[in-house]
Every structure is written in C-alpha cells, then in structure tokens.
Design brief:
Layout lengths: L1 H82 L3 H88 L1 H13 L5 E5 L2 E2 L8 H9 L4 E2 L6 E4 L9 H5 L3
Parallel strand pairs: 1-4
Antiparallel strand pairs: 1-2, 3-4
Helix pairs in contact: 1-2, 2-3
This protein binds zinc ion (ZN).
Zinc ion binds next to loops.
C-alpha cells in the first residue's frame, strides 16, 4: 500500500509543478505585450515632442514674415521721403518710419526669444531621442530574455510530462483503477487529489477525520479517502512517506 501512496504523492508533486510552470508560461505573452506597449509609449512621447518643435518653428517663420513685411513698408516709406514737398508731410513720414522701426525692433526681440526656445527644444529633443534609443534597446533585451525563459519553461514542461508518464506507467502496473481515481479527483478537487492527514486532521480541507478511521489510516493497510473532501489520504507522519528520493532510486 505505501508504495502506491508514495507514487501518488510523487505524481501529485509532478502535477503541481506542471501547473506552476504552465501558469508561469501563460504570463509570458502578457509580459511581451507590456514591453511592446512601453516602446509605443516612448515613440508617442517623441512624436509629441516633434510636434512642439514644429509649432515653434512655424511661429519663427511667421515672425520672420512679419519682419519682412515691415521692412518692405520701411523701404517704401523711405522712397516716399524723396518725393515729399512740405515739411509737415516730411515729419509725418519720418514719424511713420520711426513707428515701423519700433515695431520691427519688437518683432526682432520676439524672434530672438523664439530662436532661443527652439534651441532649448532641439537640445531636449536630442536627449529624448537618445533616452528612447536606450530604452528601446533595454526593452528589446528584456523581450529576448522573456522569450528565452519561455523556451526553458517549454523544455521543463516536456521533462515533467515525461516524468509524469513514467509515474503513471508505474502506478498502472500496480493498480489500474488507482490512476483513474487520482485523475478524477485531481480534475474535480482543484488539482489536489491526495492529502496527508496529520494528528487526525486532513491537511487539505483542514477537517478532522474520526479517530477510528485515523487509526486505520496509521495502519496503512487499505486505500482511504477523507470523509469530507473525498481526497485520497495518507498518514502524513509516516516515515515511509518522508523521503521521496527512495522511489526515484528504486528502493521503495
Ligand atoms: Zn479532506
């Protein structure tokens, strides 16, 4: 009997490990998605930065055109000066030129401000570009690592399934229906088909089993189930179930 139980315990451990590895593998596409999203976000940041820079450049062009217009006006006003007859007209024309020159000077100040802002924005843009380039490299590296991990998990699952197959064959040789019972319970009982009972308490459902049943369990002559959760039970303190290595080396 104890050999059956030991094989079942080992099969249970193998199945739990398969579950763990498969769960970890399921996380990988999510991780890849998250990393891809990070790259997209970085690119978006770069786009909005370029848009800001373009707005500044457009403003610069607008001010430049305004300055050109005023210069044209100043030129025309200066031309007019030569054909003016009266002092009064002459003074008025000079005043107009003064005003235009004042406007031009204000626009030139504005142009300088914009050019400075463009300078700052271009420097920042280059820094952001560098940052994003570095970030992209890091993300690509991370992706590679995640994909490499996926391969490792795949081979781990393969190994565990191979191990499972061997265990199942061993169990089938001893008791054909035991494996069916185990799988039936595993499917319906949250992946746990076999549970130790320690000090009269089932360690999976945490309910006590009657003393007489517990005594029977300690004797270990028959295959027993928990009266509450229906899982296969064994006496958890039994030394024969402590060292699982024995099964693998064939001593059991
Ligand atoms: Zn139980």
């Amino acid at each position: 009997m104890h050999k059956k139980i030991r094989l079942l315990i080992e099969l249970q451990e193998c199945d739990l490990r398969i579950n763990d590895v498969e769960r970890e593998k399921k996380e990988i596409p999510k991780k890849i998605d998250l990393l891809s999203k990070k790259i997209e976000e970085a690119k978006e940041r770069l786009k909005s930065d370029i848009a800001e820079l373009n707005t500044l450049k457009k403003k610069r062009r607008e001010v430049e055109i305004e300055i050109e217009d005023i210069e044209e006006k100043i030129r025309k006003s200066n031309e007019k000066l030569t054909s003016i007859k009266t002092n009064k007209e002459y003074r008025a024309a000079l005043k107009e030129i003064d005003e235009l020159e004042e406007q031009r000077s204000q626009l030139e100040d504005r142009l300088l401000e914009i050019m400075e802002a463009i300078d700052i924005a271009e420097k920042r843009h280059k820094e952001i570009e560098k940052d994003i380039e570095r970030e992209e490299k890091e993300i690509e590296e991370e992706k590679k690592k995640v994909l490499a991990k996926e391969k490792i998990l795949d081979s781990e699952i393969e190994k565990l399934k191979e191990e499972r197959k061997k265990l199942c064959e061993k169990i089938k040789q001893i008791d054909g229906s035991l494996l069916q019972k185990y799988d039936f319970l595993r499917m319906r009982k949250g992946g746990i088909a076999i549970s130790p009972v320690i000090k009269g308490v089932c360690q999976t459902c945490h309910l006590g089993i009657p003393p007489q049943k517990f005594n029977e369990l300690i004797k270990g002559d028959t295959l027993m189930t928990c009266p509450h959760c229906m899982r296969i039970i064994y006496w958890g303190d039994d030394e024969r179930y402590q060292d699982q290595e024995d099964i693998k080396t064939g001593k059991a």
